[in-house]
Amino acid sequence: MELQFLSDELELAITDRAETHRRDKLRLQMEVQKQLHEQLEVKL
């Protein structure tokens, strides 16, 4: 029983970390797009 609980907790931790990584990646992509957009506006 205890082992199953620990296994479930580990699975949740891994899933949470993967989701956090995806969110961080999306946040970085949005920031890069924003910077590129700002640079294009300056050139126009």
TrEMBL record:
<dbReference type="InterPro" id="IPR025756">
    <property type="entry name" value="Myb_CC_LHEQLE"/>
</dbReference>
<feature type="domain" description="MYB-CC type transcription factor LHEQLE-containing">
    <location>
        <begin position="23"/>
        <end position="43"/>
    </location>
</feature>
<dbReference type="Pfam" id="PF14379">
    <property type="entry name" value="Myb_CC_LHEQLE"/>
</dbReference>
<protein>
    <submittedName>
        <fullName>F14J16.25</fullName>
    </submittedName>
</protein>
